[in-house]
Amino acid sequence: MSSIKSDKQTSVNVNNVNQDHIHSLNDSQDSTVQPSPTYSSCLVENAVQPKILKHISTPPSQRQSKSTLKFDIYSKRSSESSEISSLLNNGNKMRNRLNLTFNKMLKNRNLIVDMLAIFFGIGTWVGINGTFIQLPLLVEIAPEGWSLPSYLSVMVQFGNLGPLIYTLMHNKSIKSDTILIYGLLILGTISALLTAFFYSETAIIFGEEHSIALFVLTFLTAINACSSSVLFMPYMGRFKEIYLVTYFIGEGLSGLLPSVVALIQGIGITECILTNGTTSEGENIYEKYTPPPSFDTKVFFIFIFTMCTASCVGFFLLDRLKLAKKEYANVRVIHGNNYVYDETETKRTSSRNIDTTDNDDNDHQSNLTSKQYIFMLFLIGAICFFANGVFNSIQSYSCLPYGSDAYHLSATLSVIANPVACFLAIFLGRTSFLIKLL
């Protein structure tokens, strides 16, 4: 009897233990409390086994969905690869077009003559542009102060007397414009060299101190710059028309190169530095301090002198070399810069250089009438009035509240804007809607 009771008691204890085991499993699933160590191995086995069974007994519908997902991924990859290949093909087409364009540009031309024309064009406005770019440093030492740009703008306008005198004497006593070009280039070169050493010299006029040396040298430099429009460009008319473009590139570089050098030069930012002394009231004393730029104005004008010298050498070689004379158009020089062109050769060269699309557009455009021509002259005069006369004279006053650093950047970047705009005009389309509306 005792053994039977003990067996019953052990069975009851086993049942209790199993029930406790089941309750503990249920409690572990409902709560976040960690299971007891005695049953951790059982829980791990119960947790792993369903995943293995589920992996083994995957239904066919899920297998099909996975296969379709893989197909979608492959299709996306193939579409992306096709897009990349299309982009590469478009890039190859653009590269071929650029190569054809450059081949057309390099055809029937001499690169040495192109370089000489560029140096010749640099000597046009490099002196005036260099002087106005240095104004943020010159206003600090000149007695005129921030009104110095107004005085220099007046000197530049006096430089227009050169083209006026040439126009009046053109049909009377001037036989060769080449001699005048040599004289103007030498005048601009000597003015740049003298400016490097005498830009700070002053004199007393009507009881006030003025930068007389800078005024006179700016006037002489302006005669060279202003006369380039009536002498330098007509001289390039004896060459093929393709070299006129490179001349204009050089004229744009006459503003770009001094601007880049001025950005490298920089300008000192004025600071207030605490001194060792104090006032009678015990307050600290501060003094104004402006650090010097990377190199002074004298070095900058020597660079301008070097560019002017290179322009003189470029024009001398352009006028004397036989390979340059071989690039002349079919012209005959009559008097000064008056040429007589062979009409048949001109038509033949223009037909080779102009595309058929441009010819179609030109056929639909009518010639300018006298009223339209006068309007265009008035428009160009108004643009030159503001760009070369008004803006340069008031630029210092507009930048005065922002300090010398802002004036330095505005004076430099404004000169860079002109050659950049001319460079973009080569690639952008040109229209004449104003002419059609008139």
From TrEMBL:
The regions listed as transmembrane in this protein's record are 111-128, 148-167, 179-200, 212-232, 244-267, 299-318, 373-394, 406-428
Q: Identify the keywords attached in UniProt to this record, alphabetized.
A: Cell membrane, Membrane, Transmembrane, Transmembrane helix, Transport
Primary localization class, coarse:
membrane
One example of the protein's molecular function in GO is:
riboflavin transmembrane transporter activity
The answer to whether UniProt assigns keyword Transport to this entry is yes
Annotated localization: Cell membrane
Example of a GO cellular component annotation carried by this entry: plasma membrane
Where does the source fall among the domains of life? Eukaryota
Membrane topology classification? Multi-pass membrane protein
Give yes or no: UniProt keyword Metal-binding: no
Q: Which reaction does it catalyse?
A: riboflavin(in) = riboflavin(out)
The UniProt similarity line reads: Belongs to the riboflavin transporter family.
Q: What does this protein do?
A: Plasma membrane transporter mediating the uptake by cells of the water soluble vitamin B2/riboflavin that plays a key role in biochemical oxidation-reduction reactions of the carbohydrate, lipid, and amino acid metabolism.
This protein is called what? Riboflavin transporter
Provide the species name: Glossina brevipalpis
